[in-house]
Amino acid sequence: MRLGTNCVFLAVRASVRRPQCHRFKSSFSQIPILEQLSIPDFQKSYFNAGLPVLLPRSYFNDRLPAIQTWFTKPSEEGQIQRLKTDYLSQYGDMFVPMEITTPTATEPDPIGKNPPVTRDVKFERLNVPFELFLVWALSASPKDPNAASVYIAQHSIEALPPALRDELPTPEVVGKAGRGDIYDSSIWMGVGETYTPLHRDPNPNLFVQLAGRKKIRLVREEDGARLYEAARSSGSATMRGEEMMAGRERQVLEEIVWGDGGEVGDFEGVEAELGPGDGLFIPKAWWHSVKGVGEGVTASVNWWFR
């Protein structure tokens, strides 16, 4: 549980603003983990009930070939994984949606003992050849706080070359838990501390970690709407828009969900840390935010289904 204070400015008149401090507390409990996957039990207890759950740990390691063919195995020293560029470079001409997040403003430590703290970022989204991402991944310096973060975000599996697409077969639970309708599916790939702000999806979501580690936090529909409204400037909360990825809205959302700030009152949520082969079911109404943790490549795949 976290307990803290945050001062926000409330409008009193059109031209008068005064600070108000608000105390809040939030807590995140661990998402339950299935010991084994029975699709009828999963359907009844989680899919139909609209509750998040982790599938058995490492369940997808031998069910999604991409885990073995795209990435090196985690090292015992630091669990750092790399892209198998010798294999993936043959698909370098493939175009991918790449997000580039660059720190633009920092606050220096007044006594000079700690690195500057980033307060703002510049966000860009480009379609580029996959080869550029591979080159960047080899040269990235995740420990540099001023380095740009590059992330392949929401690249459709259907847009992959057939050989790569075949290495991400649709999991059985996606086809059988609901009506069998797949709304969309995507891959997500970056290096180091990738980040997706608080949002909600248009359909139930099976999220599977392929490489590296990610931490994910979820809150229920009513709490998520309240948290988002506390930070929202404009746009839809069901899309990965630029207003979510840069500026004041990004800062406030991150502080509310991951830090010690936010004029939102008390709330509770659930969380989990995913490693290679782990799968998480995210119900439709649940808001969530995702962070890459550690060094090396981090990659995920998801299926929105109903």
Automatic annotation (TrEMBL):
JmjC domain location? 150-306
Q: What InterPro entries does this protein's entry cite?
A: Cupin_8 (IPR041667), JmjC_dom (IPR003347)
Identify the Pfam families for this entry. Cupin_8
Q: Which domain of life is it from?
A: Eukaryota
What is the name attached to this protein's record? JmjC domain protein
Q: What is the native source organism of this protein? A: Aulographum hederae CBS 113979
